[in-house]
Write a structure and sequence with these properties.
Layout lengths: L1 E4 L2 H7 L4 E4 L7 H11 L19 E5 L2 E2 L11 H4 L5 E5 L5
Parallel strand pairs: 1-5
Antiparallel strand pairs: 1-2, 3-4, 3-5
Length: 98
């Protein structure tokens, strides 16, 4: 099981707690996680990625093992700690301005 932490406003939309667990087939990638997340919680479709292009929305960031994976290719395998459930995959709403 993959553990995913999503931003507070999306937790409210999906009616879930701070962390969700989803089943993802190998290889574990950003695309695979987001596909599984949107399949299980259809109300999240379009909130994290664009409906048509499946590209990450502006001001959404992805973190794995404390590193920013937002600009990595969506099909790049994530670290083993995320794939085996030891660490979480974080979806973070970024802030702009100062």
């Amino acid at each position: 099981m993959i553990r995913v932490v999503i931003p507070h406003h999306l937790r409210l939309l999906a009616n879930v707690g701070s962390e969700v667990a989803i089943q993802v087939e190998e290889p574990v990638t950003q695309r695979a996680i987001l596909d599984a997340l949107e399949m299980r919680y259809p109300m999240l479709r379009g909130t994290i990625r664009n409906h048509q292009t499946k590209e990450r929305r502006p001001f959404i960031r992805f973190f794995a093992c404390g590193e920013d994976w937002s600009h990595e290719a969506p099909d790049t395998p994530l670290p083993e700690a995320v794939a085996n459930g030891q660490d979480v995959f974080r979806i973070v709403g970024a802030m702009a301005g100062g």
